[in-house]
Specification:
Structural class: mainly beta
Oligomer: single chain
Distance between the termini: 41 Å
Largest sheet: 22 strands, antiparallel, barrel
CATH topology: Maltoporin, Chain A
Helix content: under 10%
CATH architecture: Beta Barrel
Number of strands: 44
Number of domains: 1
Radius of gyration: 28 Å
């Protein structure tokens, strides 16, 4: 389906949502005419057995910089994001990738309203010549438009699949029983914030050569949000949400400044209604992120006039839910469709590095990254029956059975042939091209479907609760049938949840990684020319292979992923919950073993890409949390908060490249099995590994509300121990078991620890009838900045860049409500 053809579907769906309630208002009433009612929100974070739930009030109160899921969730220890370069890219509004349970970021399952909306075609990809930059999440919704966010990272029900890390489920705002209209505005300027920290190793970030967006010293960000919702008849309610995020980033451009804007627009329309005995929910969603970029010549600091390009990432989707109560239980059905699209529009379809030896030595680069786009279509069908409680003797059973089908297809297109080459113009007039990769204009496509059946039974007997579940799934991409058992049991020493010990054991399988198959098909359009010598005399602009004699010509071969094993993870959990007076204590342990992780690497001996199915890691995550059950009263203030500590011990799959944590990017891989870390020879899976997580992290939240004055103060104090990084020093051959073996030489670096204090003050003047709210948010109020990552070759400052945490940021906001 072409992206533009969805306009008719969008128009029809909007018409249905707007006009259907009037047509259906007289529908026969059921025995229960009550519409679904949202539970009242609370002011504290709710710690679930299986993760974390942030309700709307908690989302609003949390002090964050950019309004996105990454910034909201990074405040919770154990949830990690890749913000290594955030300090030098202060104008960015694109969310960072999120890692759950220390898994690779593409193994996070993003959901909206319980529907998976993952981008599986360009996920975790790099923005580079001939390839699209992507993100695992298909939609970038502003958190102001969210009703709740649930994070599930352990003991996850067999109802859910397609991950080896965890699930983030966002619920968009729903219409309430009374009419509501809300608007909010939030802004930030670089002049209000602290400058990035730069040291001798990367002071050149300020040079114009970095003016392509890697260094953003000036910017202004503006966020607009609107929500309107309420009843339109006795049986129907409508909601509408709109968010526009803008960031103006004037970058260095040939001695001046050129504005490079980023925008993120998202919108939704939802409908809740009653059709006889059926509860109906309709939801239309849309999101599009765009960023303008240009490429500076990294050798001469000049900007080529044909270096501009624009990236976009977004989608359009629709969900229909039909639920009905029967005598034996509840039947719930979901039908959903999402079309996600990544696109680049560039000035030219070539990127050239040029070495000119005709008049001395002149090295330069020019061109852009090429025009291409990829579109992913995903249809989801889900049906489940939730039986009412059944009893066998004194044992209570709560049984659920369900089925799910997900149909994926994706197609990409190069609109014109793309040339990526290095050119040498020699003093004798000859011209060489090496290397020279030509991607022919054309389409490439791939598809993969998934089918799942699941069943669960929650047994309760006296103080014992057992959750037994099983998920069976067929994944076409890997031509694999998987069976994932899920077990979770708990014993209440006293009454429910007052003094409880829980144990769990589960297996999770990755979902379809369609981007691998699509990338392989795309590579099938490429031809690699090596050591090409021009035969046309002084002709230095020809891109016709007939004008050159080449040492080798290689046509890339596609990879068959049916031969790969499905990546999976095994989990063991132990949790202990205890209530002492007004304090709730949770101590937890999570062991997650990632297996069969994928990567592919070009193998010059085979003249083709080679698939590796050997990425693995082990993570032991320990957590301790204290929180109040009811808020305390002190001097007229309502006070509550929590303290949480997380320690992570991880081995395996550390970085063996010169780019920070590069192997979380699926376009980069390694066939290297052996490494030498600080002089010690070991397998890669045995490495002590750093990741986006610090090994020790803690957060202390303290929130206070003075209702009589309309004041709310939220504080988050976070501690992160210094990350452990592995730095590449090079590669050498070692004799292992009598066989010469390539080994990556690595060294370990311990980075500095960090304490930050984020605060948000909101004032809703009672004299304004509580219709106006003014806000001030300050992140990293203490203005602490430490090194958080290093990219490059160890012990070589010429090829190394250090990146630091963000300094202090100041945000102003205003909100109005009718």
């Amino acid at each position: 389906m072409e992206f533009i053809s969805l306009r008719s579907l969008l128009a029809a769906s909007i018409a249905y949502v707007i006009y259907a309630p009037n047509v259906l208002a007289e529908a026969p009433s059921s025995t229960n005419n009550n519409l679904p009612v949202l539970e009242e929100t609370e002011t504290q974070t709710i710690e679930q057995e299986n993760g974390l739930l942030l309700n709307r009030e908690e989302i609003k109160a949390t002090p964050v910089a950019n309004n996105n899921l990454s910034q909201l969730l990074k405040t919770q220890p154990g949830i990690a994001i890749n913000d290594a370069r955030a300090s030098v890219r202060g104008g960015d509004i694109k969310p960072e990738e999120i890692s759950l349970a220390n898994a690779r970021t593409h193994q996070t399952n993003y959901m909206i309203g319980g529907v998976t909306t993952n981008n599986i075609s360009t996920f975790a990809a790099a923005d580079k010549a001939g390839g699209l930059g992507g993100h695992t999440s298909g939609y970038f919704f502003d958190t102001e438009l969210l009703e709740s966010v649930e994070v599930m990272d352990r003991n996850i029900s067999p109802e859910y699949g397609s991950f080896t890390g965890g699930i983030i489920n966002a619920e968009l705002r729903k219409p309430t029983d009374t009419f509501v209209a809300e608007y909010s505005y939030k802004m930030n300027k670089s002049s209000w914030n602290s400058d990035p920290t730069l040291d001798a190793d990367n002071k050149d970030l300020q040079r114009p050569g970095w003016g392509d967006g890697r260094y953003q010293d000036q910017y202004e960000k503006r966020f607009h949000n609107l929500f309107i919702g309420g009843p339109v008849s006795e049986l129907h309610k409508l909601g509408f949400g709109l968010s526009v995020q803008e960031s103006d980033i004037p970058l260095i451009y040939n001695g001046g400044r050129k504005n490079q804007q980023q925008t993120n627009t998202s919108a939704f329309i939802n409908h809740l209604g009653q059709l006889g005995a059926w509860e109906v929910s309709n939801e239309l969603r849309y999101s599009k992120f765009t960023e303008k970029r240009f490429l500076n010549d990294t050798f001469t600091d000049d900007t080529d006039e044909f270096s501009d390009y624009k990236n976009s990432h977004g989608g359009f989707g629709y969900t229909l839910k039909l639920n009905r109560e029967f005598t034996l239980g509840a039947w719930r059905n979901t039908v959903a469709f999402d079309q996600l699209k990544d696109e680049r529009k560039a000035d030219v379809d070539y990127f050239k590095t040029h070495l000119d030896l005709r008049n001395g030595f002149d090295l330069s680069s020019s061109g852009s990254y090429g025009n291409l786009d990829q579109t992913q279509n995903s249809t989801k069908l889900k049906s489940a029956y939730y039986f009412n409680a059944l009893y066998t003797a004194s044992v209570r059973h709560q049984v659920t059975i369900g089925s799910e089908a997900t149909l994926h297809s994706a197609e990409g297109q190069y609109h014109e042939a793309f040339n990526n080459f290095s050119q040498s113009s020699n003093a004798n007039g000859s011209v060489n091209l090496n290397p020279w990769v030509v991607t022919e204009a054309g389409n490439y496509k791939a598809e993969s479907n998934q089918y799942a059946l699941y069943v669960s039974d929650t047994l309760q007997w006296n103080k014992l609760t057992l959750n037994l579940g099983l998920r069976a799934e067929h994944i076409e991409l890997f031509d694999d049938n998987t069976v994932a058992p899920r077990f979770h049991g708990s014993w209440d020493f006293q009454t429910d949840r007052i003094n409880r010990l829980s144990l769990g054991a589960s297996r999770y399988y990755s979902g379809s990684l369609l981007g691998w198959a699509l990338a392989s098909q795309r590579r099938g359009l490429q031809t690699d020319y090596r050591n090409c010598i021009g035969t046309g005399g002084g002709n230095d602009i020809s891109l016709n292979p007939g004008d050159y004699d080449c040492g080798s010509v290689t046509r890339y071969q596609t990879i068959d992923l049916n031969q790969a094993k499905t990546p999976y993870s095994d989990e063991l959990t132990v949790d202990y919950d205890l209530q002492l007076g007004n304090v709730e204590i949770n101590a937890g342990f999570l062991r997650r073993q990632q297996r069969n992780g994928l990567s592919f690497v070009y193998n010059p001996k085979l003249d083709r890409d080679q698939l590796h199915n050997n990425m693995e890691s082990d993570s032991d995550i320990y957590s301790l949390r204290f929180s109040n059950i009811d808020n305390y009263q002190l001097l007229g203030a309502d006070i509550g908060g929590y303290l949480k500590l997380v320690y992570t011990d991880a081995t395996g799959s550390g970085s063996t490249t010169s780019v920070y944590d590069d192997q979380n990017d699926l376009n980069s891989g390694s066939e290297i099995e052996w490494v030498e870390l600080d002089g010690q020879l070991m397998r890669r899976s045995e490495m002590d590994t750093g990741s986006y997580n610090s090994d020790l992290a803690a957060v202390f939240a303290l929130n206070a509300t003075l209702e009589d004055y309309g004041l709310t103060l939220s504080n988050l104090v976070r501690y992160e121990a210094g990350r452990d990084l592995t730095l590449l020093k090079g590669q050498e051959i070692r004799d292992i078991n009598g066989k010469p073996t390539a080994v990556s030489l690595l060294s370990k670096e311990k980075l500095g620890s960090l304490v930050t204090w984020d605060a948000k003050l909101a004032w809703t003047p009672p004299v304004a009838d509580n219709l106006l709210t003014l806000g001030l948010t300050v992140t990293n109020l203490l203005n602490r900045q430490v090194k958080v990552s290093t990219s490059g070759i160890a012990n070589s400052s010429k090829f190394t860049n250090n990146y630091y945490s963000k300094g202090r940021e100041v945000w102003l906001s205003v909100g109005m409500r009718l």
